[in-house]
Amino acid sequence: MTGIALTDRTGARQLTLPSVPLLLGAAAFAVLYWEPIATLLRDWWSDPEAGHGLLLGPLALYLAWKSGIRKDAVGQPMLGLALLVGAVLLRYVSGLAAELFTMRLSLMGAAGALIVFAYGFRQLTRWWLPASLLLLSVPIPAVLLGSLALPLQLKASAMGAWMLEARHVPVLLAGNVIHLPGQSLFVTEACSGLRSITALLALGVLIGGMWLKTPWSRIAILALAIPVAMLLNGIRVFLTGFLVYYVDPSLGEGVMHFTEGWVLFVVAFAILGGIAWVTNGVESAWLRRGAAA
Questions:
Q1: What is the pLDDT of residues 10-59, one digit of tens each?
Q2: Structural domain contains residue 293
Q3: Residue/partner pairs of 188-192 with CB below 8 Å, 24 or more apart
Q4: Which residues contact 92 (CB under 8 A, 6 or more apart)?
Q5: Total domain count, the chain
Q6: Fewer CB within 10 Å, N- or C-terminus of the chain?
Q7: Do 186 and 279 fall into the same domain?
Q8: β-pairing, 183-186 with 3-7?
Q9: 3-state secondary structure string, the chain?
Q10: 7 inside domain
Q11: Considering the entire predicted model, what is its pTM?
């Protein structure tokens, strides 16, 4: 039982109040997970690599609220309790190691366990889209971030250098440093494109959940988000080198460089939206053909 039902004199159900065990469970959850919640909100606000959480977190909660509770929702206390025990154990171990990423994963796991406990596993599958957005809002661990950023830096540098050579710009590539006559461009971790990939993956999940109907089309839009982000990041490196060489070396930094990133980010969003639109058309035609057959 998840609450106390109040009825009027006619016996009609009017309101459901939380039961004492549920209130106690919510209080215990708040105490146990206060630290990961507080640090997650702090990183969303202060860390540029995690800023997308300020959008994804509230959006996920809104989508869950809009989707609502299944009419046939039935709690699975034993399964929910087992999942909750696993999440709490993970919270304890991650707390000993002071490892924020697994601590935050245990937070998500505990929230999912409480949903299963109160409403059943099918309710959790109903909320797959909000749950996916919340998981994507969790910042990547610094160790993994570094290991992913360097290959992306090298790839963006190589793509930018190749495009510059195609435009007859003298280029010498050394790792993630592009040497131009009288000027060198250093492709930093912030220019690796990792932020764009994370944001486009979140957009792909959102578009797939709201526009597309089949798992294969949703997987396809996610798979295409990564090369789109990488290609446009290479174009950003090329544009920076092109402007530095032909116009003014000062255009390789400051407001102009920042503006380039935002403009190409908007272009990436538009490209992914266009791909989703085409995919939706193909998907709808295929489903109509299947229904007619």
A1: 544 444 444 666 677 677 888 888 988 999 999 888 887 777 888 888 99
A2: no
A3: 188/153, 189/146, 189/149, 189/150, 189/153, 190/48, 191/153, 191/156, 191/233, 191/236, 191/237, 191/261, 192/148, 192/149, 192/150, 192/152, 192/153, 192/156, 192/233
A4: none
A5: 2
A6: C
A7: yes
A8: unpaired
A9: CCEEEEECCCCCEEEEEECHHHHHHHHHHHHHCHHHHHHHHHHHHHCHHHCCHHHHHHHHHHHHHHHCCCCCCCCCHHHHHHHHHHHHHHHHHHHHHCCHHHHHHHHHHHHHHHHHHHHCHHHHHHCHHHHHHHHHCCCCCHHHHHHHHHHHHHHHHHHHHHHHHHCCCCCEEECCEEEECCEEEECCHHHCCHHHHHHHHHHHHHHHHHCCCCHHHHHHHHHHHHHHHHHHHHHHHHHHHHHHHHCCHHHHCCHHHHHHHHHHHHHHHHHHHHHHHHHHHHHHHHHHHHHHC
A10: no
A11: 0.73
**pLDDT digit string, tens, across residues 114-129:** 899 888 999 999 999 9
Q: What is the pLDDT of residues 51-62, one digit of tens each?
A: 788 888 899 999
Two tokens, residue 176: 């993630």
